[in-house]
Amino acid sequence: MNFSAKIPFSKIFLYIDSRIGKIDPHNLEKFFEEKTSTEVELEENFLQNKNRKGLARRVVYTKVRDKRERKFKKPLPKEVDLEKKVIEEDKELLGIIYDGHRLVKLLRGLLSQDEKENHTIIITKRLFGTLEMNESRYHIRTVINSIPSIISTSGIVEGPAKPRKYYFTDKDERDEILDFRPMTYSDERMETAVKSYLLQTVFWRLLGDPSCDKEGCRLYNSHWQRELIENQIKGELCEEHKDRLQQFKKR
Ligand SMILES: [Zn+2]
Fold it and tell me: 190 CA to middle of ligand 1, Å?
C-alpha cells in the first residue's frame, strides 16, 4: 500500500447502501460517535457516489464464478449493463457473490486520501465471500476488515450457518425445530448486529485484531447463527475491550 494509515484515526467515513432493511443510518452514526468520540461523516451508496466510467465492469470482474475456485471471468456485456443499473439506481441484486478480497481492493482504489488514512467502512447489501488457501470452497462473510472495511447485511443472514438439522428439514417446518430465531433480511435486530461489526472494524483498525474469544463479547468471531444472536445481538463488549475503547476515546 502506498499510503500510511493513521493510528489512531481521527475521522470515520461511513457509507451505507440505501434501503437496507430496518437500518437507520443516523442511529449508526450516533452510535459510532458515542462509542469512539470521533467525527463521523455519513454518506450513501459508496459505488454510486464514486461511480465513474468502467466501474461497473470492474465490479463484475470480482464476481465469484465457481464456489470452489478463485477464477474470474471476463464480464459479459449484459452483466455489465445490469451492474450499471444496480449502481446507478441502487437496485437489489440477489444471488450474486463477489470475491471479498478483490472487491475490497477495487473499493480501496476509489477512496480519497483522507478516507484511506482514516477509517472508512462500507455497509452494503451485496454478498461477498472469501476462499482462503486452506479452504475448499467460498465462505460467505459478514465483514472484511481492511481498508476500507466492508460489512454485508446479506452476509449477516447468509454467512453464519444454522444448525445442520435445519437444512435437512422441510421448509415449512424449519422454524419449529430451532429454539432461537436466526437472522432474516427484514430483521429488526439487524441494526444491533451491524453495530457489533462496526466495533469489530474499529478494533481491527486500532489493534490489528478484530475478534475476541470471550463468549458474550460483541467481538466474538461467530460462525453460527446461534453465536451471532448470543454475541453480536445480545452481547456487550467484555471488560478488556470496554477499557480499550475507553482509552481510545480519551486520546
Ligand atoms: Zn472482548
Answer: 20
223: domain CATH number is 3.40.390.10
Query: Residue 120 is part of which domain span?
Result: 11-249
Tell me the C-alpha distance between 5 and 86, whole Å.
Answer: 31
Question: Per DSSP, which regions of 154-239 are E strands?
Answer: none
Q: Which of 141, 139, 127, 125 has the alpha carbon at shortest distance from 190? A: 125
Cα–ligand 1 centroid distance for 234 (angstroms): 14
Task: Reduce the DSSP state of residue 63 to 3 states and report it.
Answer: strand
Residue 239 Cα, ligand 1 centroid: separation in angstroms?
A: 7
In angstroms, what is the span from residue 237 Cα to ligand 1's centroid? 5
Q: How many domains does the chain have?
A: 1
Distance of CA 156 from the midpoint of ligand 1 (Å): 20
Query: What residues have their beta carbon closer than 5 A to ion ligand 1?
Result: 212, 214, 217, 219, 238, 241
Overall pTM surpassing 0.90 (yes/no): yes
Reported as a single tens digit per residue, the pLDDT across 74-126 is 999 999 999 999 999 888 778 899 999 999 999 999 999 999 999 999 999 99
Report CA(129)–ligand 1 centroid distance (Å).
25
Cell of 154: 446479506
Angle at 126 between CA 122 and CA 132, to 5 degrees: 90
Q: Which segments of the chain have a pLDDT < 50?
A: 1
